[in-house]
Write a structure and sequence with these properties.
Residues 185-232 form the Isopenicillin N synthase-like Fe(2+) 2OG dioxygenase domain. Residues 73-134 form the Non-haem dioxygenase N-terminal domain. Keywords: Iron, Metal-binding, Oxidoreductase. GO terms for molecular function: metal ion binding; oxidoreductase activity. InterPro entries: DIOX_N, IPNS-like_FE2OG_OXY, IPNS-like_sf, Plant_2OG-oxidoreductases. There is one protein chain. With 252 residues, the chain is of the alpha+beta class. It has five helices and nine strands, in the order H-H-H-E-E-E-E-H-H-E-E-E-E-E. It has helices at residues 10-14, 57-72, 79-83, 139-164, 171-176; strands at residues 88-89, 93-94, 98-100, 115-122, 182-188, 223-225, 229-230, 233-234, 238-240. The strands form four sheets. It has a three-stranded antiparallel sheet, covered by helices on one side. Strands 1-2 form a two-stranded antiparallel sheet. The longest helix is centred in the middle third of the chain and has 26 residues, at 139-164. The two termini are 36 Å apart.
Length: 252
């Protein structure tokens, strides 16, 4: 049985005209978001993936179309339409895939101010296509094509990483194997009257081999933790990242 908070989308809460987020979304004062800092002499290393592949423009185009379809269409469907793709089955059982919020384990859990669409995209024969939105109509085909392009980029990055470390180009690719499990997560952050109290996505570590980030230039907030502690003291908190120019997205 799922907890009551599991059944409600954050977008519905935000649309209710509340002055402050519900207490289950509010972090303790010492855990609340702080402004990101960037040391004046700090330069984050970046790699232009376009220099590693022959024709990156098609990947960029697919990413732009996919982002547009989700931000302007799917997340603005009616609650009744979204229910068809819910990650709560029959109002009582949680599943990872579908639209909703992350799993709610306890009533004391602090929740993210975020709705997400979470889908397994690889292997193809393990896709739950009934949870893939049918609106807009071209979304399924677009997500399939985007996944294929991301697979190409992943192999290029893993190959370049391997050779840079003195291994053969196929070293990491062979370790990952042919049947790679890949998930796509699309997050929607509704407006919040008190953004200083909540996290869209709380600080975390991805447990994937490679994450490809599709950033929205109109939504800020992405940060990475670097050199958090030095000699037992906090040296630098978070570094704020911005979308790369020309639509090319950073990978981590």
């Amino acid at each position: 049985m799922v907890l009551e908070a599991q059944r409600q989308l954050v977008q519905e809460i935000a649309n209710g005209g509340i002055r402050e987020p519900p207490s289950q979304y509010v972090h303790r004062e010492e855990d609340r978001p702080t402004g990101a800092v960037m040391a004046a002499d700090m330069v984050l290393p970046t790699v232009d993936v376009s220099r590693l592949v022959g024709a990156p423009d098609d990947h960029v185009d697919e990413a732009a179309k996919l982002r547009s379809a989700l931000e302007s269409d799917f997340f603005y469907l009616t609650p009744e339409e979204k229910l068809k793709y819910s990650n709560v089955i029959d109002g009582d059982k949680f599943q990872h895939e579908g639209i909703g919020i992350d799993r709610v384990e306890t009533n004391e859990q602090i929740l993210d101010w975020c709705d997400r669409l979470y889908l397994k995209v690889q292997p193809e024969d393990e896709r739950q296509l009934e949870l893939w939105p049918s609106h807009p109509q071209f979304l399924t085909a677009l997500l399939h094509e985007y996944t294929r392009k991301c697979e190409q980029v992943t192999k290029v990055v893993l190959g370049a990483t391997a050779t840079g470390l003195g291994f053969t180009e196929e070293f990491f690719i062979d370790k990952v194997g042919e049947r790679v499990t890949t998930f796509a997560r699309f997050s929607y952050y509704p407006p919040c009257a008190r953004p200083d109290l909540v996290y869209g996505v709380k600080p975390h570590t991805d447990n994937s081999v490679l994450s490809i980030l599709l950033l929205d230039k109109d939504v800020g907030g992405l940060q990475v933790l670097k050199d958090a502690y030095a000699a037992g003291k906090r040296a630098i908190d978070f570094l704020k990242l911005r979308p790369a120019e020309h639509g090319r997205q950073p990978t981590s």
